[in-house]
Amino acid sequence: MLELARRVKACQPGIVTVVGGTQAFMVPASFEDPAVDHIYVFTTRANLLEGFAALADGAAMPPLDGVRSRARGYAPTGGKGFNEYLVPDRISTAAYRKHYSYFGYQPCAIMQTSQGCGQHCGFCLRWRLEGGQAVDQPLEVVLDQIRNMAEPSIMMYDND
After folding, report:
1. For residues 49 and 128, what is the distance between their CA atoms, to the nearest angstrom?
2. Are 101 and 107 in contact (CB under 8 A)?
3. What would the pLDDT profile of 117-147 be if each residue is shown by its tens digit?
């Protein structure tokens, strides 16, 4: 990711680069690099909407819990959190989903039905990323996602 961010900045220094994911949650300092503008340590509906709205308006990224910005020396706000369950915008990837596969099923959608885990296994990151208690998504949220999926196969998973 760092190499890609560096290449992007070399081609167009004004492009805003944003990274996130498991590595950013576990070791955010690994992305502290002149080529990375913002590190999403954890994502919530609020910090995504507010952060990207500011960027779309050409404004500076405001101080947000879960986001570390190069302009502020990657300093955290002090707010702690976990990744929030967000229903994915599958429309934005519709043109590419014919390439998606899972264990030979193609095309295939992947859907998470719960977050967090109360087991706290040393080898697993899910509870660290999403919280130490298993929380199932409401059945109607799961059913709505299934109704709106175009793929003939769906791989559903939970964290337990």
Report:
1. 23
2. yes
3. 888 888 888 888 888 888 888 999 999 999 9
**Assigned token pair, 58:** 């050409």
Full 3-state SS string of the chain: CHHHHHHHHHHCCCCCCEEECHHHHHCHHHHCCCCCCEEECCCCHHHHHHHHHHHHCCCCCCCCCCEEEHHHCCCCCCCCCCCCCCCCCHHHHCCCHHHCCECCECCEEEEECEECCCCCCCCCCHHHHHCCCCEECCHHHHHHHHHCCCCCEEEEECCC
Parallel, antiparallel, or unpaired for β 67-69 and 108-112? unpaired
Give the pTM.
0.80
